[in-house]
Design brief:
Blueprint: E1 3-6, H1 14-23, E2 25-29, E3 33-38, E4 46-50, E5 55-56, H2 60-67, E6 72-77, H3 88-93, E7 97-101, E8 120-125, E9 133-135, H4 139-151, E10 157-159, H5 162-167, H6 171-177
Parallel strand pairs: 4-5, 4-6, 9-10
Antiparallel strand pairs: 1-3, 2-3, 6-8, 7-8
Length: 187
């Protein structure tokens, strides 16, 4: 399957795109944006979040979900925010293998070194995820949960879609357009 993201610009995503290619994805520039696909089986990698032009912290959650499907053990070292891995508890409940640690496992010790923040995740894969009831705590985790639900076997129920609707333009319609089976309910 190939998915085109209209309006995406390669020059704004260089670090993310390089990471995607490194783990087995690929992309091509199109007239209207970028087209993405899986070029080969996904493989583990190590990532450290950073400020632009590095691997931005906002990309960490969706990449962590992707790494649950990669062969091997990946490390994601969060160096920007001290509490960005709370969402992994629900991923683990879906079957992901995510171990959090307070140690800096990246190339250099970060500003959280020696502090009691779980800011590094070790993700082992590939793991089959199964459907679950998920509660979105924020926009970034919510996007990760949607990806996890799409990868998972079975049905997932996601509560807190307002975060996604606030942060993304017509997320339900766009996901349905690429084959996701989504129904919405007002509570």
């Amino acid at each position: 399957m190939r998915i085109e993201v209209r309006g995406a610009r390669q020059e704004h995503l260089v670090t993310y795109l390089n990471t995607l290619r490194h783990i087995g994805g690929d992309f091509a520039q199109t007239k209207d944006g970028l087209e993405f696909w899986r070029a080969r089986p996904l493989t583990a990698t190590d990532i450290e979040t950073s400020v632009h032009p590095g691997f931005m912290t906002d990309w960490q959650q969706p990449l962590t979900v992707l790494l649950t499907q990669a062969t091997g053990t990946s490390v994601v070292h969060e160096t920007i925010y001290e509490d960005r891995f709370g969402y992994t508890e629900q991923l683990s409940a879906m079957g992901a293998s995510v171990e959090l640690t307070t140690r800096c496992l990246g190339a250099v010790a970060c500003r959280f070194h020696g502090r009691d923040f779980q800011h590094t995740a070790k993700i082992s894969g590939p793991r089959r995820l199964h459907g679950a009831d998920l509660v979105i705590p924020d926009l970034r985790a919510g996007f990760g949960y949607v990806l996890a639900a799409l990868v998972a076997d079975g049905t997932s129920t996601i509560t807190g879609a307002r975060y996604l609707e606030r942060g993304y333009e017509q997320p339900v319609a766009k996901l349905a357009a690429v084959g996701a089976h989504i129904t919405t309910q007002s509570v």
